[in-house]
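DM from R.C. (forwarded with permission)

"hey, sorry to bug you on a friday — could you get me a structure for this? deadline for the figure draft is monday and I only need the backbone to look sensible"
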Amino acid sequence: MTTDVTSKRPYSSRWKPNGTVEPRLSERDITLFKLLTRYVYLPSGYIVALLQGEKRTWQDRLKNLTGAGHIARPKQQRQHANANYRPLVYALADRGFNALRERGVEHGRPRAHSSFAHELMTCELMASFELGARWSGVRLIPWEDILRSESLPETTRQSPNPYRIPVSVTIDGRPFSTHIVADGQPFGIARMIDGRPAYFFCPGVEADCGTEPVDTSDFARSSIYKKFVLYLAIEAQGIHRSHFGFPNFYVPFVTTTEIRARSMMDVLRRITGQKGSRIFLFKTFPAFTSFEKPRPPSGHMLTEDWLRVGFPTFNFLTS
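My reply, with the result:
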């Protein structure tokens, strides 16, 4: 019995891009490049889910575009012990940025976090919100639309860092003037309730990979405790209105394990005198450094319930 080896695809390492043929860029490629200006990193599955199309076709195209230098596979992903079995992660490379510039497409380079795992988690969370909005039929209000909104104060619009929220608090009798910046970008969800539009706004997400303390008495150090205090002050002082023009304000906290999420919720319960808070939403998501199998791309950040302290669970589609 003979084997027909000619029908098999030639062996190719997933880490070696195909650079033998210079690809002729299509509008679909440009759409991909635009997507990667909004998300610093995206696994291949999210690219397919967001741009749609046949998975194998996208895999071949991503490999060609990588070989030509339009997109890149961040080398940090190879540090994971199971790197050969995880979806490949992509980022826009210099030639991709140049292709957009040559076509007069306005764009900025996304602000990246120093931690690959943290930035990847942030991008996956924000992409999940986008997928959820598409699949459920509600409107996702992106940061670009917020910047153009008449509700946004002009001082914020003209600020070099408009997503940075200034806030002052008093801790142990000492005043602190500082700011806080969530991960990702501010966004909103618009949906109809009883025939009238309803809006839910977030300053971004707080993606927690477990690298900072949950509770600490040192307010000068970054911690979950400090973030709770600052966001509570923003709500109490109405800074979400004066800075963004947001009529309301929700802060999604996403961490890697249920144990850590419960620790966060216990700290919030203590800070608020057991009352809790309506603005903080809690959910878990496996980090890149975890050996847990990556969750398939979906809109679950928008469609599934979030836990709260002292209040019923929250859902962007039904609450």
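R.C.: lifesaver. The two ends are 64 Å apart (CA to CA).
me: no worries. Confidence is low (pLDDT under 50) at residues 1-12.
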